[in-house]
Amino acid sequence: MSSKQSSSKSAVKTKASPASEPAGPRPARLTGAAALTAVEGVALAGSGLYLLAMALLSKPDSLRQALTAGVTVLVLAALPLLAARGLWLLRRWSRGPAIITQLMALPVAWTFVNGGGALIAAGAALALVAVVTLVLLVNPTATEALGIGPRQD
Questions:
Q1: Cα–Cα distance measured from residue 22 to residue 147, given in angstroms and rounded to the nearest whole number
Q2: pLDDT greater than 80 at residue 34
Q3: Is 153 helix (H, G, I), strand (E, B) or coil?
Q4: What does the pLDDT read at residue 151?
Q5: Helix axis angle, 95-115 to 118-138, nearest 10°
Q6: Tens digit of pLDDT for each residue in 89-129?
Q7: What does the DSSP assignment read for 95-137?
Q8: CA–CA distance from 129 to each of 13, 16, 77, 91, 101 (Å)?
Q9: 44: left (phi over 0), alpha (psi -120 to 50) or beta
Q10: Integer Cα distance of 132 and 152 in angstroms
Q11: I need a labelling partner for 24 at 20 to 30 A (CA). Which of 18, 49, 89, 129 fits?
Q12: Is-contact 68 46, C-beta < 8 A?
């Protein structure tokens, strides 16, 4: 291969990489959103593991239902964990799943608050984390860092 061909191929690679990966450092707002989304994912995974442990160690009315609940929560934990990793790595696709996670957390928080007792504090904390993360995700600094901008029609 001639040097002219190899230089044109490297130029093509250079031109393609900025479109797939936004350039620049990760803003603090995006780091915060990634961290909060990861905390939610870890909490969900912990809940799923707890449900599985309780299904196996106690005597539930229906072992199948208890195991299904634990596995379902573990699978649901994958969404915020993948979204957090994508936000950390400045992947454009990750903003959608992160926003969906926060929107799904709000009704859960409301249910916790209506549950009374210690669930009120858990629901308030979850609602606060969801709202703060949503604000961080829609911030122009974060969207710019992810390469998301207004439509150019």
A1: 6
A2: yes
A3: coil
A4: 64
A5: 160
A6: 999 999 999 999 999 999 999 999 999 899 999 999 999 99
A7: HHHHHHHHHHHHHHHHHHHHH-THHHHHHHHHHHHHHHHHHHH
A8: 39, 36, 16, 21, 11
A9: alpha
A10: 29
A11: 129
A12: no
